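Hi F.,

I've been meaning to write this up properly since the lab meeting, where we talked about keeping a consistent format for the predictions we share between groups. The idea is simple: the sequence comes first, exactly as it goes in, then the structure tokens exactly as they come out, then a line or two of notes. No screenshots and no reformatting. I'm using this chain as the first example so we have something concrete to point to.
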Amino acid sequence: MIQVMPGSLRAQTKVFGALADASGSPVIAATVLLLNSSDSALVKGTVTNETGKYSFDNISAGKYFITFSHTGFSPGKTAVFEIQSNNENVNQGVLKLGPAESVLANVTVVGKRPLFEQRPDRLIINVENSITSAGNTALQVLERSPGVVVNRQNNTIAVLGKDGVNIMINGKLSYLPASAIVQMLDGMSAGNIEKIEIITTPPANFDAEGKAGYINIVLKQNDNVGTNGSFSGTLGYGQGWVTQANLNFNHRKGKVNIYGDFSFSRVKSLFPVTGYNRISNGGDIYETFNNNDREDTTRQHNARLGLDYQINSRTVLGILLSSSGRWYRQSEKHTDSFNLNGKLDTLLNSSNRELNNWQNYGINVNLQHNFNQGDKLSFDAYYLNFKNNQPFNYYSRYYDNKGIFVYDETTKAEKLTPLHFWVGAIDFSRKLSEKINMETGLKGTIASFTNDFSFSRLVQGNWMKDPSLSAIYFLKEDYYAAYISMIVSANEKTTIKGGLRYEYTNSNLGTESRKDIIDRHYGNLFPSFFISHKLDEKNNFSFSYSTRITRPTMNNLAPFTYFSNRNTLLTGNPGLQPAIAHSISAGYSFKRYVFSISFTKENNAITGFQPEVDSNKTILTPENLENQKLLSAALSVPITITKWWSMQYNITGIWQQVNALYKGEQVRIEQKNIRINMTQVFTLPKNFSMELSGFYQSPNLNGIVHFKSSGSLDFGVRKKLGTKDALNFSVSNMLNSSDFRGYTDIPEQNLIGNIHLRFSWRTFRLTYTRSFGKAKLKGNRNRTTGAEDEKGRVQY
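Output, unedited:
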């Protein structure tokens, strides 16, 4: 029998209130503790929400007091108050936090963030706490991150099965083409990264570009007085030497803060590729078997130098200079055999060399002013310059089916690509009432792009350009955006955020001889809605809806030609259309356990390097699908075995349906896949710690190309050498199991082929890290930075 207790026995007191700074702005994520007045024992603890509010439910009668604290503010506490009955509510009102002006000496930080922090709209990966990340690159960290799939063949990054993710550095959007972003991250050392935020539900003040959301890479920085920083060095070996060096520093004195970082890496490795392709044409069967032995050497640097000047107590002026460079060199021996109707027809041996150099620099100026009552206005202006120089050299020798030399051929391809971006943005936020906050802003981006590609053959000692494979393409694109969003605290448990963004795009592509190959002008509205409801201290529900756009990348629009062999080539597609995605998601969290489910339908979905047969050649090019449907479910499970052994499991399941038109006929492919990420952390005696991590990716789909299962297992051990030094040893990809193995098997469409690529090998790394400077802390200036402030900004 179920017994219902009287209301007088069930009702218990709620203690609630809010925290604000001296200007009246809400203090978010502050720690609030309810303590027993008799012995200061902790009764309950919580953190303030997006509007600075907190609450404690089901508090029994007794005497209590509250303490509150946040980095950059002086801690405080309330007077002792008494609860005399079990059915009254206690409102503490708005408690003010003052700035922490005094310098604290000999501060020792004993807390440690978990490797993964799951929140309703994002997953946070605390890279600096990961032992196995030491000496790795940002791309390698992402490859092991829950729900993230890196496709190195197509140079794409997917989140929860969705391509089209945007990359931000310290909250500033990178405008690099997708292929260059993957290459940049593959050279960015994890040693300078504090954390990575995977934002799956971006609000209206983010750019509408990218259906998969955002990945924000937050670089290390601090707010210490004087000069502080750290440096690290890595030496490793896989199928070649791996070296890295990192430095970051911060100098703060008076009204001036100067900060910066620099990283350099050099990686040498082997890159084997094997493939097969089969084409039926006019009753004949053409088969191509290729084997590629490549040696790669990559050098990369990333550098930033910034200055913040506090004009007065409410106004900050900042300037940031950034630069990066990537120098890629490869030499390969290529062996191909071409069969006709099951019999060997031709043999090909090639010696090829490729250079791929990316260089860029940028300047960003930011002015931010805080008004009364928490109102804030910020202005950004920035310029970005990129330059890509990518020459290819091919030397090929052809033999007949008996191995007798027939002829040789020397060819070259040259590609020079400068890109320019001018961006301006203004954002304003206002607190309309105790429960309503508004954000609004304008943004404009102007981009220009030149793609100078030429293909030439050496004929009797002279280079002869092939006009059918050579052209100079010019792309001019500008888009303008306006947004407004509202954050409403309906009550102590429910928060609603809704926004509307409008973007208008002008895009024009042409050559010197053909103008207006593409001339598009279109505008779109992008609504977004998010609601979070807290049932109690342990249970929370959330729901979101958003509409987003994926525009074709500049490189994909402006054609290029890369010959894998005489029957297989890669090229761009000027006819690509933008794609529109509609997504809904729901989430539930219990303590630190999080479950979420989402559905996305994307019309005109863009997918990279899909095969198409033309005569006896296979052309790989980005294409628009008719649509793509994707259903995903994600589960985050933290487990604490003992105080020295903890685990984290993240499981993502995906159902995917691809609908495409190929030569006028409908093609539909469905697939289910699962991805499991695991991390185990061991805290050992004598300042030792150990980490075992890995992932498994079941077979999955990219457009009409299937990829077989893959995975990785990584191990690391760390020894702290005092308070400022640490030594890391790690082994990544211990089982050599992270190969890319893709295939297409649609015989009715004449699409049969496979490819096997190995991008990474088992690699051993030894990393030494040392911090320098005095650990004397001073309160932050009243200025937020990074992803929570300058949304969707430019290059790092």
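Notes:
Confidence is low (pLDDT under 50) at residues 1-11, 101-111, 776-796.
Residues 228 and 760 are 35 Å apart (CA to CA).

If this format works for you, I'll send the rest the same way.

G.
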